[in-house]
Structure formats: C-alpha cells, structure tokens
Amino acid sequence: MIRIRADRDACVSAGMCVLTAPGVFEQDDDDGRVVVADPAPATEELRRGAREAVGLCPSRALSLDRIPGGD
Ligand code: SF4
C-alpha cells in the first residue's frame, strides 16, 4: 500500500498529476493547486498512475510513502 502526499505550497498548478492520474489527483477550483482525492489508491492501476505522476511533477510537490503490511 502507498500513501500519497502533496506539498500544496510547492505546487505550481501545472496539472500534470491530474492528467496522469485523474482518479487520484484533482485541482482546486479556486487556485488550481493539487488536491489528493485518493491518498491510498486501492488498485494497482491507480497506484501505477500515482507513481508516474509523482515522477512527472515539475515542482517535486508530490511524494509517496510505503505503508508496511499493505500490498
Ligand atoms: S503536477 Fe505537481 S505542480 Fe502540477 S498540479 Fe500536480 S502537484 Fe501541482
């Protein structure tokens, strides 16, 4: 299992995460910054998208923690 974290102060509203993993990330309607809609995705498909989004974020605002005991 993974836990996704977002540093909203670092986010520059580029939207790459929302395009890459739309079920996991959303953009705030007011300021465009990231909102983690699903911080612990249950499916491998969503987790794969989340990992890809973390790598693509231009401001390094996203990170992942592994949760011991999960899959
Ligand atoms: S990709 Fe990074 S900078 Fe862009 S909206 Fe997502 S968290 Fe913010």
UniProtKB/TrEMBL annotation:
Gene3D superfamilies: 3.30.70.20. The keyword Hydrolase does not apply. The keyword Hydrolase does not apply. Its cofactor is [3Fe-4S] cluster. Keywords: 3Fe-4S, Electron transport, Iron, Iron-sulfur, Metal-binding, Transport. InterPro entries: 3Fe4S_ferredoxin, Fe-S_cluster_ET. Ferredoxins are iron-sulfur proteins that transfer electrons in a wide variety of metabolic reactions. This is Ferredoxin. The lineage of its organism: Bacteria, Bacillati, Actinomycetota, Actinomycetes, Streptosporangiales.
